[in-house]
Design goal:
This protein has 352 residues and is an alpha/beta fold. Helix content is 39%, strand content 12%. α2 (25-32) packs across α4.
């Protein structure tokens, strides 16, 4: 089904800073050669798996900022190859940004977001600490490469922690010593810590250790759907206590309870967090192009992002609160993380 978006919602969406904290479009390019500069269409019902985001449709959907995930298989063994896979995806993004400066820009700071209207601003994030190959100094290497958020885990255990679900999942294990050092190093550099995919014990430990706000770039909430992939109220409280933000995923099974749930489930998850903990701690993290079995009914692709604004208005949410959810909360976190970084800290490479 297709939702009708009112003029009020379109106007509110147009004046918002709209941030989607997680897309996997760069992975799709790596695997298939997908050209993110061209308009595509997913020809299959319910838009499964991929082909749901590109620059034309991001602009159609009024999306200003995208967290582009940099994804690496955990079975790539050689450390140099791990770095090469990340570098390949960063290089593709930079090539597109150079060729289309009117449409795409790399955001290295909050100022890059606020100074670049009418462009899609990309914030690059590594999905899983296995990309570090156990080398703490690589956090700074990736930061210098342009990465601005780091997800501690993906669907596999690594040297830092265990996932909430997937290979090596273990609810009894928290962060390793390496994982604790990673949290501190992200704080030092001003690199946003992302706790999506992390098991609860590791999540809560990282939330206690960090001295800057963190994000959960793409998740659902157990308060609406009891899935191992979703975070519970205690975790949501930790997000709020650290002034962070949790991005609501568009996978219908984790927001509506079924792969064929409607987009209203996404709005319900957002409203659950808003009503329970306030409008300052929830945002958008669609996971579009992340090989989701399908998108929620009513969301064909990223161009339908105004549907979320419409649904929140229909459910009586105040425009100022909706503006926070659409992107204001992420920008606040990005600014706070940058401010918390110690600009005069000794580089890791020069420490004894």
């Amino acid at each position: 089904m297709k939702f009708t978006v009112s003029q009020e919602a379109r106007e509110l969406h147009a004046r918002a800073l709209v941030v989607d904290m997680h897309h996997d479009t760069l992975l799709v390019h790596k695997l298939t050669g997908y050209d993110m500069t061209r308009r595509h269409r997913n020809p299959l019902p319910f838009s499964p798996l991929i082909w749901n985001s590109d620059l034309p449709r991001l602009l159609d959907g009024g999306v200003d900022v995208v967290g582009f995930g940099l994804v690496l298989s955990p079975f790539v063994i050689q450390p140099e190859k791990r770095a090469a896979v990340i570098f390949e995806q960063v290089s593709y993004f930079n090539d597109v940004a150079r060729q289309h400066p009117d449409r795409l820009r790399l955001a290295l700071s909050p100022k890059d977001i606020t100074d670049s209207p009418h462009q899609v601003r990309g914030v690059l994030g590594i999905e899983g600490a296995h990309a570090l190959a156990g080398r703490l100094e690589w956090v700074e290497m990736y930061y210098r490469m342009g990465v601005r958020y780091l997800t501690l885990s993906h669907f596999s255990a690594n040297a830092a922690c265990c996932p909430a679900m997937g290979w090596g999942a273990n609810p009894k294990k928290g962060l390793t010593d390496f994982g604790r050092e990673m949290v501190a190093e992200c704080n030092r550099l001003g690199l946003i810590l992302d706790l999506a995919h992390v098991n609860k014990r590791g999540f809560m430990e990282a939330a206690k250790l960090t001295r800057a706000p963190f994000i959960v770039s793409h998740t659902g909430f157990k308060g609406t759907v009891n899935s191992a992939r979703n975070i519970d109220d205690e975790q949501l409280r930790a997000v709020a206590d650290t002034q962070g933000v949790a991005g609501v995923i568009f996978a219908p099974s984790w927001t509506g309870g079924s792969w064929f749930s409607r987009a209203g489930g996404i709005a319900d998850a957002i409203i659950y967090a808003m009503d329970k903990f306030g409008a300052d701690y929830v945002g958008l993290g669609s996971d579009i192009d992340g090989f989701l079995w399908c998108l929620a009914r009513g969301i064909r692709d990223v161009s339908d992002m105004p549907v979320i604004t419409e649904l929140l208005l229909r459910k009586g949410k105040k425009p100022d609160d909706i503006l926070k959810v659409l992107g204001g909360n992420f920008l606040r976190v990005f600014r706070a993380v940058a401010a918390a970084a110690k600009s005069t800290a000794t580089p890791l490479s020069s420490r004894e």
